[in-house]
Amino acid sequence: MAKELLxxxxxxAWYGESHILHGVNLTVNEGxxxxxxxxxxxxxxxxxxxIVGMTxxxxxxxxxxGQDVLKLAPHKVAGLGVGYCPEERGIFSSLTAEENLMLxxxxxxxGMSVEEIYTMFPNLQERASSPxxxxxxxxxxxxxxxxxxxTGARLLLLDEISEGLAPVIVQKLAEMILTxxxxxxxxxxxxxxxxxxxxxxxxxxxxxxxTIVKQFAQGELKENMGMLQEYxxx
Length: 234
What we know:
The protein is an alpha/beta fold. The protein has a single domain (30-54, 73-232), classed as P-loop containing nucleotide triphosphate hydrolases (Rossmann fold). The chain contains nine helices and ten strands. The strands form two sheets. It has a six-stranded mixed β-sheet with strand order 6-7-8-3-9-10, with helices on both faces. It has a four-stranded antiparallel β-sheet with strand order 2-1-4-5, covered by helices on one side.
């Protein structure tokens, strides 16, 4: 039996007075790649942010390895081995690529060394001394993910990492996810790019109006395409 790493129970979340999540329930097992599908505004990004405590008020439960983290500060959640890669990437323009890479603290043993990261992302080694703003969009995205891998996080929350990138870069990111999965990382993907996410995920959750409306496994993808067409227009 796979070990459950993340469990979300009846999760509600707000930004100010806006009630965004309306009772989200999902589980993620250790070593899985799970994708949250849905239209813009369905609550997928808010779900990731709520896991790490970056929304407003929340109620319900977010359990990591059985520990409810709902009342923990974001840095305490990160200390449990959770890495969040937001859509906006957060690359510091005044720092070089390598300085950006070294910025976050190590939170747990077992993080990738700089050498391992450069083996996975040779582009970053070539651009190590380049300012953050001189990197291409694809290089910035690789750097945003690489920064988390150095910290020792084993649960990766990745938000729209393929957004706006050239197909060749998207393919490299897909290879990266498969490599990380083979190394035992657990990944939750929020993706608008269904073609990118579909072959990578072990399981899918479909969100609409801040709640989960459907879940299914990779082996059930074909029979759910009609439903996905309805919800996503894919």
